[in-house]
Amino acid sequence: MNILFVCSRNIWRSPTAEAIYKQRQDHNVRSAGTEPSARIRVSSKDILWADIIFTMEKKHKQRLVNNFPVETKNKQLVILDIQDDYKYMDEELIEMIKISVDPYL
Fold this sequence. Notes:
The chain is α/β, with parallel strands linked by helices. It has helices at about 15-20, 45-50, 60-65, 70, 90-100; strands at about 1-5, 30-35, 50-55, 75-80. The protein has a single domain (about 1-105), classed as Rossmann fold. The radius of gyration is 12 Å and the shape is globular. InterPro entries: Ptyr_pPase, Ptyr_pPase_sf, UCP029416_PTP.
């Protein structure tokens, strides 16, 4: 399964999620951001590659749908509802991601 994690700047939340799930043999994982200043900016190629897309907030899903309407049309987009209150690999962030994502996998 190809999994894409999306947040704003691809610095804290989505790279943490990528690091957690990259260890699993049965998944291919990427992360990206929606902002122009993102470390890795989400592209249409990323969206087409993904089987499932997890966004950290509702605004990220909306940006994907607005900027990539064709690519997101038949994609499963899941909002994790994780605010930008955490640093990379924060223990609480890891726990929230696992609780939110695992049921989908």
